[in-house]
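Hi P.,

Sorry for the delay on this. The queue was packed all week, but I finally got your sequence through. Input first:
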Amino acid sequence: MKKKNKKVNAAIVVIGNEILSGRTQDKNVSFISNWLNNSCGISVVEVRIIPDHEKTIINTIKEMSKKNNYVFTTGGIGPTHDDITSESISKAFKTKYEINKEAYKILENYYGKKEFNEPRKKMAKMPKGSKLIYNPSSAAPGFIIKNVLVLPGVPSILNSMIENCKKFLIKGSKTHSKTVNLFTVESKISRELEDIQEKFIKYVSIGSYPFFRLGKVGVSVVLRSISKSKIKMAYSDLLKVIRNKKIKTLSI
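Then the structure:
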């Protein structure tokens, strides 16, 4: 992993008609998000799900790569006719789409020359200048071009490859969080939460999420920050609100 930088963000682009149709349930977004925050200190700030449509992929990659430190894509790098991610990303960066010699060799050794057919050879094609993300599960590598990391859609394969992305990333500061579960309704604490948020606006983000538990309505208040001390300070203010309003909680 490269030298640490304080704030580093990423976006995830899920590519696949099967996700949009509901035929396949996405499992990669939560896995990648957790891995990036916990292992790399990188925060995911946006997720998009788009179809296997060349113009959409090109426009999305161009936009997202400009806005974020990194973009992770999933899906669309297999051997079938509708796997168009690699070629579309080549066009997005106006880079030649060609056989990567190292990827070709890896796949040829994996399948054997007799079984290494044209569809499988397609998996060795990617933008010129790409660096490989090695695949210990099924050989076919992903790749990185500029700040875009291209991974498969099959969760078990993606999971096995994710650690091989780390060497391409600049490490950021991990985001810490603290959750307090309150037996109350959001309207009863909304003004006080707004005041706390305003006080710590530069350091802590505060979210409130309703729940129904043990037959009672409640609110989970989540404090997030790269600074543990700032979370502690905001939490102290929240405790005062809880005690003043005599709100019952599950976490204190």
